[in-house]
Design brief:
Layout: E1 8-12, H1 16-38, E2 41-45, H2 52-58, E3 68-72, E4 74-76, H3 86-93, E5 103-105, H4 114-125, E6 134-137, H5 155-159, E7 167-170, E8 179-182, H6 184-188, E9 192-198, H7 200-211, H8 221-224, E10 231-236
The chain binds 6-phosphogluconic acid (6PG).
6-phosphogluconic acid (6PG) binds at residues 46-50, 73-74, 76, 86, 138-140, 145-146.
């Protein structure tokens, strides 16, 4: 994978269990530090399949989870109990054990239109102090991250660093159902930003993303090809 530079900090692990243990420890330390510093902490996590092992380890962390607010980086607009719902994944794998005490603030997905869900979600998140203390991104093999999908209908708005929106709805080929996503300014403002990817295929996608500049073709580039925010890249085979 691309070597470290001023923005990208690589954390390679020999296997996925070791990565989950290492990343969970790092996240727990950041959350505990935020709690001791300002009495509360916030984390936004991604869905999909990669984070399951991480969530199982992180849920057992011995921190003041009752001071932690858990958000999603993005969500599929589907019923909360759908097996496609990221909120279901978080409820079933992260909000367990000690982490049961955390405050969970999922996106609103029950209103009539994606844009109405986005607007209501932004209202719900208004009470969560920003910047986020931790944000954990994944990456698809098409080079999407969050719900910044290639050529998504609101991708420019989601990536607009001068924009004021915290949440946008997104429709795109390859996204399946319409999505809701935190915007790039919110994610790049996080005090600790991690990109969690696993496997040789995603290693190749990551290197391809690093080698190019077209963010609409590979939106993860908007995270990788910037210099304002350190990005901690966690990878295992
Ligand atoms: C989602 C995620 C998304 C995810 C990538 C990778 O809702 O799908 O938030 O951005 O991180 O699609 O998903 P996998 O971990 O399943 O490969």
């Amino acid at each position: 994978m691309k070597a470290d530079n001023g923005t990208l900090h690589r954390h390679d692990y020999p296997d996925r269990e070791a990565l989950a243990t290492g990343l969970a420890a790092g996240i727990a330390a950041k959350l505990a530090g935020a709690i001791s510093e300002h009495g509360q902490a916030s984390i936004a996590v991604s869905g999909g399949s990669t984070p399951k092992r991480l969530f199982a380890v992180l849920s057992q962390a011995d921190i003041a989870w009752d001071r932690v607010t858990v958000l999603l980086v993005d969500e599929r607009i589907c019923p909360p109990d759908s097996d496609r719902a990221n909120q279901r994944l978080v409820r079933e794998t992260l909000l367990k054990g000690p982490a049961t005490a955390a405050h969970f603030a999922p996106f609103e997905t029950g209103l009539a239109t994606p844009d109405e869900n986005a607007a209501r979600s932004a209202e719900l998140f208004a009470g969560v102090p920003l910047p986020l203390d931790v944000a954990v991104l994944g990456m698809g093999t098409d080079g999407h991250t969050a719900s910044f999908f290639p050529h998504g209908d609101k991708l420019s708005e989601a990536l607009d660093m001068e924009g004021q929106r915290k949440v946008v709805a997104m429709k795109a080929d390859g996204a399946g159902e319409p999505r809701l996503t935190l915007t790039l300014p919110v994610l790049l403002d996080a005090r600790f930003l991690a990109l969690h990817i696993e496997g040789e295929e995603k290693r190749g996608v990551f290197d391809t993303a690093c080698a190019g500049a077209d963010t609409h073709a590979m939106p993860v580039r908007a995270v990788l090809n910037q210099s304002g925010t350190p990005v901690h890249v966690f990878w295992a085979p």
